[in-house]
## 1
Amino acid sequence: MLARLCYESTGEFPRSEIFGLTSQIRRAGASIPANIAEGHSRSHTKEFLNHLSIAKGSLAELETHLILSQQIGFLTEERLALLLVQCDEISRMLASLRKSLEARL
């Protein structure tokens, strides 16, 4: 859902941002579930944990770009709040999954 919201939210960004914040937000948003999926398909738990770490980094990058987008007037405060709630939920899920996987090691 977060990746889809990122695409929808950047749809009205200025055309001049297509290679800037629009691209950065969309790539970071799509990178999170992609890294989780790739890690899940790996043979070893340590590889999965590595991909979860990459997903967490993409999430932090996304949050930074979203806040900047609101500060410069591309996102409303309401839209930013919705996106950050989603980011927080994913962050908690990643932490729980990571803890569960680390217990297997």
Note: Residues 2-104 form a domain with the de novo design (two linked rop proteins) fold (CATH 1.20.1440.60).
## 2
Amino acid sequence: MMMFAGNVTKPKKMYICLTERDVTFLKKSTMQRKLFFLLISILAFNLQSIAQGDLLITPTRVVFEGYKQKEELNLVNTGNDTAIYSISFLQYNMKEDGNFTQIETPDSGQMFAEPYLRIFPRRVTLAPREPQVISLQFRRKPEMQSGEYRSHLYFRAEKDNKPLGLDKATVDTTQLKVQLIPIFGLSIPIIIRTGTITVAASLNNLKIENRQDTIPYLNLTINRTGNISVYGDISVEYIPVEGKSYEIGTLKGVGVYTNINKRNVSIKLNKTPGTTLKNGKLKVLYTGFNETKRFKYSEEEMEVK
């Protein structure tokens, strides 16, 4: 979950191709490591990263499963001023519309990951364009149940936003003054999976809704079963009666966490101008991915007339 302030500009699409050998070489020395992070900061939004305010984080999601016990998070200050960030854990519930609410105690079917995680450091000061590595360690305990544990790692800006010259200003005690100081922060999910895990997903309730009279959206429901969450991408393909099929909609990074069994999703359909979605069908594909491969959760079709 990310909390934004201000507008976000969509970057141009670019591609970087680094082999495992390239990454190993870049990390061999301190100087090479700095060059590696400089490359990340310059091409920030073109990697698997998120940025809010002036903070860039890679990766955007961490899953501990199998024998994995450690993960490194790469932070980069992309701004022009020195910034301070405190790092802590927050707990969230997902609603069926995809929004989050902060909670203190877990709901039914939900377990927190925080008690089994260690972070170092918990507070960083970053100069402009300076990188920093945060170490995240999973400590397995014998009493852990099979299933999924989840908490969210929260990065809170503690930058000094005091306006210049404020200390020298004369205080007028006859007037009431209000000063609003924005606090920036973002969070990424940290997931632990242990023991015997099961999961399955299906799609239903497919329905096209026209908004503003001309813009079509595909509404659908993702259904989840099992003791872990699902997370992946949704693609929508239009298959006309005559002619070639083509993709008309995508939605990236769609998850259904363990505190809910279904999530309602709406996808904007980008049809070709001057055409209508008639006399054919839509094929909707929900796929997940891990470090080695992409796999299919569910596929569903609907006719359009």
Note: The chain has three domains: 13-42, 54-160+188-197, 199-304.
